[in-house]
């Protein structure tokens, strides 16, 4: 009995082969050089392979340092484990919990519907409204949750905007086809009462009339086909706009996506002094770039799908304005969905107020241009207060404050009796348990452990020495190359994994060529979110790809332009606004506090 060794059978066991062969093949590194640097490099390369191929779940791969570092003599178990719950991870958990509270009370849906009502109901206006809403929500809640919430709203609105028109046009054509024979029969009856001579002339007129009707029906069918094509094109365009806005929106604030937190943690673990990158300076740099990228995405999608600036008739037909009655129908639909939410509740108001308080506490903790409220505690008690403290304080309040004012003097006689099991809290622990992405928390911890292992083992220092070859290369060329390569790598690997792998390397490269580390690390971290080409690149991509029923080639053709555009915008921003905010033209004093061995 022969073995089935075709490529199909090999592909079936791809994950098992990678899982088995990767440690064996990479094992040559510590064998050839039995040093701490080589052993740490072996673990990092193994994690990189597993992360990029996803032979095992990415969160499980992030746990490798817990057993690999102690067994290879790099770090003790206690030292490794404590890294998995650093201040950055606690800040991330706090931000996620507040975001879950926003979802739990449907505040995000209320915001989305309000924005859509405000912007208007034409395709271009609706797309702008979808993008602005998705971008804003994606800054604060997870990209996946934002996309999953927006997709049903977009789908319902597009159906209301175009499906009814399509059905109406098809019905008109069917009515025309059914009425035409009746008219011909009636004409024949009239012709029977006429003379033979007139009958011949009328028959010729009938033939010409039939030919004209056939031509009209052909035009109607052509118009209906064009309407179907128009609906499909606009559907693809709008769903891609939601995907782009979700991916780009996560770059606006530090808690927006995991790579943002990884760059913060890498800097904090590498330097003992403040680097100038905090919640406020991150927003000052990234929000303008985020808005520019979303605007360019809105323009690019119109160029590609509506033929903006093109003069051919098909493009003009696709870009034509929808009738006013369709716009009104969409507005009625959105208003009905908004009414279904009911009047704004105490729970929503509480969440909104706490959310605003948290953002303000983050912004003014240490805003650089003034001392900030954290300075009081440092001067009074000699302790440093970081962003995790206000995040966890607000989370605690979410479980303490009431969701409804139905107690004491607030209770009305007609109110139903309270359920003894109802604690009436704004946020329930069950909702947190179900919605916290614990895999991302582990993934962040794995990245932190990897960076710590590189520092303790001396791998970071060794790598910095090897990167000396880039000493004479123009720094602008280096950052352009780094951002382009990062944007391509994040298409096939998790954005968190990509950031965990490249950011420690870029930190050492910057020190080696005597460039401000922020100049390389900040744009690279942002580029980890620029994954617009492949359905598997991010969860929002996968959601949109599935719902919009588009081809992978279509997503790639539109996405590659967005990748290039966003990378170019980011390079312009880092060389202009970034220089002003972070003084990137000078080597900062805090690099002298490097903790790298």
Total strand count, please?
0
The largest sheet, given as strand count, sense and whether it forms a barrel, is: none
Strand-and-helix sequence, N→C? HHHHHHHHHHHHHHHHHHHHHHHHHHHH
Overall 3D shape: globular
The number of helical runs is 28
Number of domains: 2
* Separation, N- and C-terminal Cα atoms: 59 Å
| Rg over C-alpha atoms, rounded to the nearest angstrom | 30 Å
Report the portion of residues in β strands: under 5%
- pLDDT averaged residue by residue: 81
Report the structural category: mainly alpha
- Which blocks of ≥5 consecutive residues have pLDDT under 50? 164-205, 312-316
Helix share, percent: over 70%
Walk me through what this model shows.
This protein starts with 6 loop residues before the first helix and ends in a 15-residue tail after the last helix. Helix 9 packs antiparallel against helix 16. Helices cover 73% and strands 0% of the residues. It has 2 domains: 476 residues, no CATH class; 61 residues. The protein is globular. The protein has 28 helices and no strands.
Sum this structure up briefly:
The chain is an all-alpha fold and about 600 residues long. The chain has 28 helices and no strands.
